[in-house]
Structure formats: C-alpha cells, structure tokens
Design a protein that fits this description.
Largest sheet: none
Strand content: under 5%
Shape: elongated
CATH class of the largest domain: Mainly Alpha
Structural class: mainly alpha
Number of domains: 2
Order of helices and strands: HHHHHHH
CATH superfamily of the largest domain: Cytochrome c-like domain
CATH topology of the largest domain: Cytochrome Bc1 Complex, Chain D, domain 2
Radius of gyration: 19 Å
Helix content: 40-55%
CATH architecture of the largest domain: Orthogonal Bundle
C-alpha cells in the first residue's frame, strides 16, 4: 500500500472509507519530513497533517474502529445497541467509560487499537452509549 501511495497509484475513492478515515490514513503514512539542500529555497512550511484532520463523529469512529468488536460482541465487548449488556457499564458513568476507552479495559486496547485523537474516541463512546440506553 505504501509503495502504491508513493508511486501515486493510491486511490482512496473506492475504498469505502469516510473522508475523515481517508485523511487519517494519509496522515499516518505521510512523509515525516523534507530534505532541504543548503543554497536552495526552503520548501513552504505546511501545517502538520494531524492538525488538519477534522474531528470524526461518534458514528464515523464506531464504524471505523469500534464496530470490529462491538458489532458482534467479540471478546466480551458489549454489543452495540444491547441495553442489557451496556447497563452495568453505563451505570459507572461517562467519565469511567471515557477512561476505559482511552486507556484500555480488560481485553480492549487503548483507543480500540487506533491512534485517533481523544475527542474522537469520546465521541464514539457517547454514540455507543446513546444507542444502548
């Protein structure tokens, strides 16, 4: 995939990913820096790609990351929309749920194994809880 990207053959239009997910993928595989040769004009300074990425909605994050486990209940994850399974988690409060999502809990890795910003993860927690009350 990286080779295709570097050769200009990487087409995100047909991947089925949201624009936000595509932007994050491209930011993840973007070059870390540029070579500057003394005596040549410096390349224009661009804002880091991560700073340009928009905050994803809870639904986008759920479908991009969380649904891998929460759609089917893999490894004990409470299934999306199942009020009975979510009730004991919701009872702990949103702050606890945010901490579990951000730092990991039982078999769930921190941020569901993603490198998304904290706010994106919190949006996903709010989305899942709102559909599971």
């Amino acid at each position: 995939m990286v080779a295709h990207y570097l050769e200009g053959r990487f087409d995100t239009a047909n991947t089925g990913q949201s624009r936000a997910a595509q932007a994050q993928l491209l930011a993840r595989i973007a070059p870390l820096g540029q070579v500057h040769v003394a005596g040549e004009p410096a390349p224009s300074a661009a804002a880091p790609a991560a700073a340009k990425a928009k905050i994803m909605t809870g639904e986008e994050v759920y479908h991009t990351v969380c649904s891998a486990c929460h759609a089917t209940g893999v490894m004990g994850a409470p299934k999306f929309g199942n009020k009975v399974l979510w009730a004991p988690h919701v009872a702990k409060g949103m702050d606890v749920l945010f901490q579990h999502a951000l730092h990991g809990f039982k078999l769930m890795p921190p941020k569901g194994g993603s490198n998304l910003p904290d706010q994106d993860i919190k949006n996903a927690v709010e989305y899942m809880v709102s559909h599971s009350k």
